[in-house]
Amino acid sequence: MNEKITTFLNSGLLDKYLMGTTTVSETEQVETYIARYPEVENAYNTLQHNLEIVAKSNAIEAPKQTLNNILEELDDTPVVALPRKVKYKKWYKLSIAASIAAIAFAATSYLFYNQNQKLTEENQVVVDEIFDLRGDIEMNNKKLDAVMEQFKRLNDPETYKYIIQGNERARDLKTVAYINPREKTSMIDVVSLPQLPEEQCYQIWADLQGKMVSLGILSETDRQLKRIPFTENATGLNITIEPKGGNAVASLENSVAKISLQ
Question: Where is the Anti-sigma K factor RskA C-terminal domain (predicted)?
Answer without folding.
Answer: 109-248
